[in-house]
Design a protein that fits this description.
The chain contains 14 helices and no strands. The protein has 318 residues and is mainly α.
């Protein structure tokens, strides 16, 4: 099990010092397959810091381009999250019955029984395709997928490609204020980021392994198998934990390197959330827990900027 902790470190570090780390853990905690929680947290933090330093040391691309790439990935994942169950059901031809995702109509496909209104594809395929293309550094493929998201949200009701899915009811999760696909702030920001990436020598973008899709497939399996929709309290709590962990990782990386690239995805998500609150202030003010959640997710932005400036200030005298 100790080998799983090494996954937090970059491959170059694992090849050089991986055996030494495993030997130290076996010596320090004999007979245990897993170190104490405090040691696990320290190892994961050190791994995040090592990955962050390796990223900053890579001079093949400017920091701002990498930051925009990370922002596009975060926004594509944000857009995909509410449709995990729906895409899973569509891919496996599962009829969700009464557990269908909560939209104005149940979202039946031509091969499923139910209402007469049908749709051909799940809206979630658009952000999923965008996410996969961005992971592989193919911004020229992600751009039309993001543009199609804008088209799907801006067109009128009655189409049979995606139906009314994502245009009525709580489509995106409601942390702070619910975001529907008709609110084009998310898809528009994602499309703009993809356009910048496609125009700025896309061959320079970082290409990540398909293994990064394993958590997405796992999330689809859990949401589809258990019929957990995005408005479920269980779904909301799990998503908050994931986002909080991502923010903590951005904080650790910024503090370790003083680099500003991790500010860009945090700022992009903060802008999308804030816009949703401005458009729907009533939905926000009615829920005090949403206020707490929003502050926890957005407040770190200035703290990250200050952390980066302090780290750079400490690096100059050295």
């Amino acid at each position: 099990m100790n080998r799983l902790l090494l996954a937090a470190y970059p491959e170059s570090y694992r090849s050089r010092q991986g055996k030494e780390v495993l030997a130290c853990l076996a010596e320090a905690y004999p007979g245990r397959s897993w170190p104490p929680p405090r040691e696990v947290a320290a190892l994961v933090r050190a791994g995040v810091q090592a990955r962050a330093r390796a990223t900053v040391d890579d001079a093949s691309r400017p920091w701002w381009l990498d930051g925009i790439h990370l922002a596009a990935l975060a926004l594509a994942a944000l857009a995909l999250v509410p449709y995990l169950q729906d895409v899973w059901h569509w891919a496996l031809h599962i009829d969700p019955g009464q557990h269908a995702i909560a939209f104005r109509f149940s979202g039946w496909y031509p091969w499923a029984g139910g209402p007469t209104r049908i749709r051909l594809l799940p809206y979630g395929l658009l952000p999923l395709g965008c996410l996969i293309a961005l992971l592989r550094g193919r911004a020229w493929i992600a751009l039309p997928a993001a543009a199609a998201m804008i088209w799907a949200g801006a067109t009128t009701h009655g189409r049979t490609v995606f139906g009314d899915e994502g245009k009525a009811g709580l489509s995106y999760y409601g942390l702070g204020a619910p975001i529907t696909a008709r609110d084009l702030a998310l898809s528009g920001t994602l499309c703009a980021a993809c356009a910048v990436l496609a125009l700025c020598r896309p061959g320079r973008l970082r290409r990540r392994s398909y293994r990064w899709l394993a958590p997405v497939v796992l999330a689809m399996f859990v949401a589809g198998g258990l019929h957990i929709i995005s408005v479920s309290p269980t779904f909301q709590r799990g998503l908050f934990v994931i986002e909080a962990a991502a923010l903590l990782g951005a904080w650790v990386a910024t503090a370790a390197t003083g680099d500003h690239r991790w500010l860009i995805p945090v700022a992009a998500v903060a802008i999308v959330r804030t816009q949703a609150i401005v458009v729907q202030p009533d939905a926000f003010t009615q829920s005090f827990p949403d206020l707490v959640v929003l502050l926890l997710l957005i407040a770190p932005l200035p703290a990250l900027a200050i952390t980066a400036q302090r780290r750079q200030g400490q690096a100059l005298p050295e």
